[in-house]
Amino acid sequence: MAEVKASLISGVIAVFLSSAVLAFVEDLDDTFKDTRVNDIWLVDFYAPWCGYCKKLEPVWYDVGVELKSSGSPVRVGKMDATAYSGMASEFGVRGYPTIKLLKGDLAYNYKGPRTKDDIVEFANRVSGPAVRALPSKQMFEHMMKRHDVLFVYVGGESPLKEKYNDVASELIVYTYFFSASEEVLPESVSLPELPAVVVFKDGAFFTYDEYEDGSLSSWVNKERFQGYLQIDGFTLYELGETGKLVAIAVIDEKDPTEKSGRLKSLIQRVAKEYREHFNRDFQFGHMDGNDYINSLIMGEVTVPSVVILNTSNEQYFLPSEPTDTLEQLVQFISSVLNGSAQAYGGDGIIQRIKRVAFDARSTIMSVFRSSPLLGCFLFGLPLGVISLMCYGICTAESDDGSDDIDALKREGLTDEEEEEEEERQRAAELEGPEEGENEEEDAGEKNPGEKKTD
Predict the structure, then answer these.
(1) Are 293 and 334 in contact (CB under 8 A)?
(2) Region class of 243: left (phi > 0), else alpha (psi between -120 and 50), else beta
(3) Topology versus the membrane, per the UniProt entry (predicted)?
(4) Which of 113, 137, 164, 356 is the most buried (most CB within 10 A)?
(5) How many Cβ atoms are within 10 Å of 117's Cβ, its own excluded?
(6) DSSP one-letter code for 135
(7) Contact (CB, 8 A) for 425 and 432
């Protein structure tokens, strides 16, 4: 009896906790459009049949609990975009799941990893002011420890500050933006003139120059990454928005070799020592394993090796000579920059056809590897049905052709020939009985004679 009571109590507690968790995520309907302007909302637009949406669902409830418990002003909700398609289209939802932070009249898309920590960090960053003040040296040092890349506006009111505020409102989805006075900066930081926009990263700082770097928005977008990164599929997608070429050392971190370590070290040296030469055009990093690169270029990249990707047009470059020294690696990168290196791939029609065939082949192979029986069923059944349909069509045509030969012959006659044929038939019908009577009379005349002879 005690065990039954304990199980009932635990069941009630579980139901209570689950209902409490669900309370942190609100189900939204079409009335949300009129009420949302008073609050900051983090909304998941989903479809009930979407597998990725179902995978995100428990993470989304954790996000709601985290933001509520931390005292964040952000309210968390979810909306069935198929039931309220009009609302979803107004917010620019084109795929599922789509995560947006709605702040006043602005809507910010979340494009990062779908983990609780990343989503919560995005919500806290975007919900706050676009530019945060650093009032003291202690606060500046604290932020330097927290962020690998730190953008700071230094100076008073100016047209540059207005541009900086606009860029911060646009790119806050990617990084933080701060402002400070010159007294807050470390003594080692010396700026040639004020006001200035400075980025602190890679153990150094770099100042924006309008004449050399172009627009402030483009410069911030390119500088928001460290000079050297560990690159995966998601990072490569983000780097594509910077417009830079991506130089990657493809290595195997699970089975490191001396050659892999040397190649990784060379890439790091180029990123640091040749920043002034290559920073505006190249992003450097390494990738563990060649599976992703192979699927991207539809080929085979040896490990270890160097590959340079142009994510804007899907071209890639491979060294025609060894890159065992710093000079050889720099020469290869320079050849890509000046256009003398051989480019492969691209986004032409032939490459697109190859991409479709490659993706189809990869999908089929993955299905057969994971579940051979399922693969046979998925691909064998349609082929069998198509074969039966073809067989039925062929046999039906042959039978119909043999049965309709006479009809085709009749259809081939002209109108005059048909009339003559009908006249012949009528004449034969009229002449038939007379001939029969004559034959009978002749037979009657011959019979007596025959009898006499007999």
Answers:
(1) no
(2) left
(3) Single-pass membrane protein
(4) 164
(5) 11
(6) -
(7) no
Is 376 assigned a catalytic role? no
The residue to which tokens 């807050």 are assigned: 184
Contact between residue 332 and residue 319 where contact means Cβ atoms under 8 Å apart? yes
84 touches 33 (CB < 8 A):
no
Q: Which listed residue (50, 376, 390, 394) is catalytic? A: 50
Q: What is the domain-level CATH number for residue 57?
A: 3.40.30.10
Q: 380 has which bridge partners?
A: none
Q: Is residue 371 part of a domain?
A: no
For residue 367, give Cα distances in angstroms to 35, 360, 361, 373.
46, 11, 10, 9
Taking only the tens place, the pLDDT of each residue in 318-371 is 998 888 999 999 999 999 999 999 999 887 787 778 767 766 666 666 656 666
Domain boundary among 103, 126, 149: 126
On the CB side of 158, CA atoms within 13 Å amount to: 12
The count of residues in the chain is: 454
Residue 76: give the domain boundaries.
21-126
User: Can the peptide bond before residue 433 be classed as cis, meaning omega within 30 degrees of 0?
Assistant: no
H-helix segments, 279-414: 291-297, 326-338, 349-370, 372-403, 405-411
Asked if 301 and 284 count as a contact pair (C-beta separation under 8 A), the reply is no
Active-site option among 53, 376, 390, 394: 53
d(CA 326, CA 330): 6
Geometric angle at alpha carbon 72, from 68 and 78, rounded to 5°: 60
Instruction: Calculate the alpha carbon distances from 424 to 154, 161, 417, 420, 432 in Å.
Output: 114, 109, 11, 6, 12
pLDDT tens per residue, range 48-67 = 998 889 999 999 999 999 99
Contact 235, 229 (CB under 8 A): yes
Total-model pTM: 0.70
